[in-house]
Structure formats: structure tokens, C-alpha cells
């Protein structure tokens, strides 16, 4: 006669617990902030780990504050929306230990850059910062073709075609009515397989043109673009400056940027090439290039400068590469009642 069923289940439970514990993550670093529902921990390599605090009180957490050095254990969770932080969380804190108390870091204030005045650039700063302060709201159709290749491959392999309706309010965008290879999908954009592109709707403008951001800009005198109506400038910016960080599930990092900007005769930004690099070795990305083109488009009878196409190329730390070719068409008026729904 064999063992009772309960005994047979014990090894399976032990295996399940072992697998669950194998998914636990441990981090050591300095607290960026501690809020009611979440915290952010900055690691030595500059990455920031975001995690939810559990609903039940966590021993020792109430005495922690920004600037403290801690050791933290977390478990992976299903994506959970945090309205206060306006983002999803993928980790929950299961344990935290104070190493030592410390003072919070003061927010960095960048001094205005000095250098020889360039009338064309100074005009462009004014034009583009004014544009960034009043970005248009609209709805458009977005189509994207995604390609991928392994680190040792020379040719791109078609992955899929994505179509959706994109609602843009200022620099914030949300996608709905998503179709993959022509078929509707119930997956939200962030739950699609493969690389998901973001940006290109104006978040890049202030970090480039604001004179209080540490972005160095110089005119490229040998630019072929000057043969036509555009003038080209090069720019560089150090890590942890004014650009928006890269998010990958529970971690984020703000790398150094470099690239080119192209200005039309009015000083408006009409093409941007932005290269992000120098990621920590433990981060998911190794490099990413974003290229965006703007043009004047009629929306509800009025002309607006908006993105018309974009290209994204990303290299993962594994060596796998992705390329996304994006086009925007059928622009229409943004209804005031339209709601930007967070990605799930």
C-alpha cells in the first residue's frame, strides 16, 4: 500500500516553494524615495529599482527615509498600476534591512551653458521650447513593422506588423484598438511580445534645447543637410541629466545621449537622431537609436507640427537586435472627453 496522497504532495510543494524562492531578488543601495505604497532604490551602477510595499506593515520600513542605505528582498508580481507614481510595478518588497542612515541627495540644478552665441541656435531654443510648452493634442493611426536579428546575423528578419489608434495629449500617448498582423489583439501594448517602442512625441525637446540642461550643441558645418532647407547640429548630454530614463519592468536608467538635430528655416526641429548608450552591464539594453521626423499636418482645419514617421533600433545586452519602422496617418481632432488609459 502506497503512502497517503498528502505525503505525495509534499515533494511537489517543496519544489514549488524552491522555484518561488529562486525568483526572489535581492538588492543593496541607497533609497531615492519612500512613499506610502512604493519605494525606489538606487544601485551603485546608477540603476534604480522600483518596488511596491506590501499592504501589511513591513518590519523596519516605517523608520526608513530617502538617503538611507539598505538591503532589500523582493518578489516578482503581476503588473500593478500605481496611480501616485503613474506607472506599473513588477516587484513587491518582502524584506528590508537598514545598513545605515543617510541624508537624501539634493536635486541637481544645472547651470546655464556658456559659449559663443549662435543666433540660429538661440532662435531655435526659443522656437522649440515654446512649441514644447504647447504640444498639440490629436488622435492618429499608427502602423509599425518590427524586425529582429541575432547578434551574429547580417540580415533583418520580419517579426510582425502592428496597427493601432494612438491618442496623443501633449507628450503623453496611449494606444488602443491594437492589431497584430491584421488581427485584433486583446493584449495591451506593453504586453505584446518583443521590443516596444516609446518616445518621439516631444519629451526629447526640452532636454536638448533648455539652456539649463547640460546638453552641448554645436553646428555641423560639413552637413549635407545644409544643401537643402535644413541646418544640422550635433548634441551630447551626460548620463542622469534631463532626458527621460529608460524603463524595463522594475528597473530604470538614464544613460548618456548624443545625436543630431535638423532645423528648418523657422528654427523648428523637423528631424531628430538620438543615440542612447553606456548602459550598465546588468541593464537589459546595450544601446538604442531613435530617429523621428516632424512635418506640418492639417488637424480639424488647422496646421500642426507633429511626428509623421519614426525609426527605433535597440541592441539588448544579450546581443539580440530589434528595428521598428513607424508611420502616423489619418490625424484627427482630440476630443476633450477622450481619456488616456495607462498601459497594462
* Anisotropy-based shape: globular
Order of helices and strands: HEEEEEHEEEEHEEEEEEEEE
> Which residue ranges are poorly predicted, with pLDDT under 50 across at least 5 consecutive positions?
1-20, 337-344
* Helical percentage: 10-25%
Number of domains: 2
Number of helices: 3
How do the strands of the widest beta sheet line up side by side?
9-8-7-6-18-17-16-15-14-11-10
Q: Whole-number radius of gyration?
A: 23 Å
Termini Cα gap: 51 Å
Summarize the main sheet: 11 strands, antiparallel
Derived structural class: mainly beta
Overall mean pLDDT score? Answer: 87
Number-wise, the strands total 18
Give the strand content. over 45%
Give a structural overview.
This protein is mainly beta. The protein folds into two domains: 5-100, OB fold (Dihydrolipoamide Acetyltransferase, E2P) (Beta Barrel); 119-333. 11% of the residues lie in helices and 47% in strands. The strands form two sheets. Strands 9-8-7-6-18-17-16-15-14-11-10 form an eleven-stranded antiparallel beta sheet. The chain has a seven-stranded antiparallel beta sheet with strand order 5-4-1-2-3-13-12, with helices on one face. The longest helix is centred in the N-terminal third of the chain and has 18 residues, at 5-22. It is globular, with a radius of gyration of 23 Å.
Amino acid at each position: 500500500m502506497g503512502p497517503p496522497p498528502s505525503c505525495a504532495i509534499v515533494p511537489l510543494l517543496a519544489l514549488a516553494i524552491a522555484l518561488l524562492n529562486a525568483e526572489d531578488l535581492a538588492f543593496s543601495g541607497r533609497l531615492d524615495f519612500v512613499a506610502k505604497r512604493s519605494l525606489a532604490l538606487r544601485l551603485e551602477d546608477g540603476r534604480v529599482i522600483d518596488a511596491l510595499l506590501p499592504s501589511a506593515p513591513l518590519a523596519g520600513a516605517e523608520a526608513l527615509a530617502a538617503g538611507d542605505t539598505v538591503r532589500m528582498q523582493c518578489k516578482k508580481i503581476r503588473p500593478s498600476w500605481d496611480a501616485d507614481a503613474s506607472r506599473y510595478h513588477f516587484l513587491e518588497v518582502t524584506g528590508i534591512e537598514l545598513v545605515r542612515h543617510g541624508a537624501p541627495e539634493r536635486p541637481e540644478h544645472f547651470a546655464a551653458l556658456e559659449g559663443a552665441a549662435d543666433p540660429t541656435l538661440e532662435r531655435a531654443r526659443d522656437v522649440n521650447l515654446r512649441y514644447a510648452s504647447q504640444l498639440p493634442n490629436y488622435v492618429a493611426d499608427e502602423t509599425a513593422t518590427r524586425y529582429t536579428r541575432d547578434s551574429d546575423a547580417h540580415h533583418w528578419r520580419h517579426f510582425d506588423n502592428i496597427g493601432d489608434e494612438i491618442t496623443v495629449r501633449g507628450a503623453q500617448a496611449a494606444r488602443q484598438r491594437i492589431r497584430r498582423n491584421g488581427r485584433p489583439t486583446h493584449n495591451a501594448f506593453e504586453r505584446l511580445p518583443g521590443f516596444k517602442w516609446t518616445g518621439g512625441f516631444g519629451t526629447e525637446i526640452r532636454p536638448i534645447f533648455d539652456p539649463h540642461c547640460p546638453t552641448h550643441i554645436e553646428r555641423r558645418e560639413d552637413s549635407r543637410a545644409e544643401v537643402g532647407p535644413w541646418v544640422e547640429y550635433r548634441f551630447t548630454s551626460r548620463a542622469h541629466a534631463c532626458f527621460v530614463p529608460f524603463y524595463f519592468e522594475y528597473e530604470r536608467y538614464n544613460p548618456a545621449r548624443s545625436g543630431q538635430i535638423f532645423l528648418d528655416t523657422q528654427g523648428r526641429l523637423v528631424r531628430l537622431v538620438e543615440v542612447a548608450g553606456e548602459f550598465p552591464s546588468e541593464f537589459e539594453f546595450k544601446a538604442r537609436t531613435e530617429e523621428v521626423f516632424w512635418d506640418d499636418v492639417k488637424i480639424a482645419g488647422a496646421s500642426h507640427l507633429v511626428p509623421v514617421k519614426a525609426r527605433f533600433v535597440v541592441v539588448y545586452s544579450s546581443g539580440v537586435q530589434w528595428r521598428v519602422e513607424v508611420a502616423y496617418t489619418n490625424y484627427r481632432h482630440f476630443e476633450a472627453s477622450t481619456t488616456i488609459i495607462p498601459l497594462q
